[in-house]
Amino acid sequence: MFPLAVGRAWRYSRTLDGQREKITTQLDARVAGWDGLRVGDTTLGAFRIEIIETDAAVRYSGVLHWTVWFAPDAKCVAKWELAGGMVRVSARSAELVEFRPGR
């Protein structure tokens, strides 16, 4: 995964604790671009990573589509959005609202 570069792709899985059982999902990620992301008074450069998440065992219908912006200068995910509906989630997006560069 690191170092990130536009066009880089990888596959990984994760296991979640479901209500009745553990659920393993498969994720296919690709660095789709380099964007300027507005955070407060600053514009940060960020890799836009597109991720498609599916249930590895195909027990649940639906696909989750994640878009994640990783900002190297902030050393964090500065924004993420989620679309699709394999499961109920408490949030569909989040973003950094302030950034102060280290000294």
List the helices and strands and how they pair.
Layout: E1 9-17, E2 22-39, E3 42-55, E4 64-71, E5 76-84, E6 93-95
Antiparallel strand pairs: 1-2, 2-3, 3-4, 4-5, 5-6
Percent in strands: over 45%
Sequence of secondary-structure elements: EEEEEE
Q: What fraction, in percent, of the residue positions are helical? A: under 10%
If helices are DSSP runs of H or I spanning 4 or more residues, what is the number of helices? 0
Order of strands, main sheet, comes to: 1-2-3-4-5-6
Quote the average pLDDT.
87
Query: Given the helix and strand composition, which structural class is it?
Result: mainly beta
Biggest sheet overview: 6 strands, antiparallel
Total E-strand runs: 6
Describe the 3D structure:
Helices cover 0% and strands 59% of the residues. The protein is mainly beta and 103 residues long. The chain has one domain. Strands 1-2-3-4-5-6 form a six-stranded antiparallel sheet, with no helix packed on it. The chain is elongated. The mean pLDDT is 87.
